[in-house]
């Protein structure tokens, strides 16, 4: 079945994100834009994934547990998992390898954690928008160990991308998918990177961009496991 997706959406847990990126606002905007699959991918954290997942079930929207992780090489990668248990394990692994710095909300923005009713239940004090001490290879290996899929993010960008920072895609990484941003046309990257599946998502930090890219995934069953299986091919 072909289902419309947006696999790169931030919540207000990401300090660079608008504070109205709450679970209810995200799910309702996804519903209005006919999305059936979304990925919640905050920077180096997954603390808002469960609230969005729980609410998504009420709207028949599959929410893939994920994170946008910054590697030691300052490359952004999206890591997706089939369940909450594995994404929480990944979060612990990542945060055990991050320098502990305090967030400055006046300078960088707040880092808000919600319940499914958009109540703020916690403010994350630790700065999330930072590089980890882990190489892209180590993040790939840990993601795979946990049954997940790693996707290099926004490869067209002049910074924080695998192409801009490494100049290539390492052959020892068994990567199946590459993500491009909403700012470029998909066709050009399909031709250039013929050996990869090209995903295009919004990287939404504000509500108006959710679902803007009109991408579709062909999955066998309406389950998160089926999405992970498709991305693993």
From TrEMBL:
Domain (Polymerase/histidinol phosphatase N-terminal): residue spans on this chain: 5-73
InterPro entries: PHP_dom, PHP_domain, Pol/His_phosphatase_N, Pol/histidinol_Pase-like
Gene3D superfamilies found in the cross-reference section: Metal-dependent hydrolases
Transmembrane segments: none
GO molecular function, one term: 5'-3' DNA exonuclease activity
Name of protein: Polymerase/histidinol phosphatase N-terminal domain-containing protein
Lineage: Bacteria, Bacillati, Bacillota, Clostridia, Lachnospirales
């Amino acid at each position: 079945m072909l289902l419309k997706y947006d696999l790169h959406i931030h919540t207000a847990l990401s300090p660079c994100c608008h504070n109205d990126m709450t679970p209810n606002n995200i799910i309702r905007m996804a519903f209005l834009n006919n999305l059936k699959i979304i990925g919640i991918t905050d920077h180096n954290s997954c603390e808002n994934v469960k609230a969005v997942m729980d609410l998504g079930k009420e709207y028949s929207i599959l929410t893939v547990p994920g994170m946008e992780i910054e590697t030691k090489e300052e490359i952004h990668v999206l890591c997706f998992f089939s369940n909450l248990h594995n994404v929480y394990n990944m979060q612990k692994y990542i945060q055990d390898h991050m320098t502990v710095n305090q967030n400055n909300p006046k300078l960088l923005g707040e880092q808000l954690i919600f319940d499914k009713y958009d109540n703020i239940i916690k403010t994350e004090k630790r700065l999330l928008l930072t590089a980890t001490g882990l190489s892209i290879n180590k993040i790939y290996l840990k993601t795979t160990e946990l049954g997940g899929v790693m996707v290099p993010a926004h490869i067209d960008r002049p910074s924080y991308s695998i192409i801009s920072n490494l100049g290539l895609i390492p052959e020892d990484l068994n990567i199946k998918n590459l993500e491009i941003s909403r700012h470029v046309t998909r066709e050009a990257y399909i031709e250039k990177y013929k050996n990869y599946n090209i995903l295009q998502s919004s990287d939404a930090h504000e509500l108006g961009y959710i679902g803007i890219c009109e991408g579709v995934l062909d999955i066998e069953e309406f389950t998160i496991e089926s999405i992970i299986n498709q991305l693993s091919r």
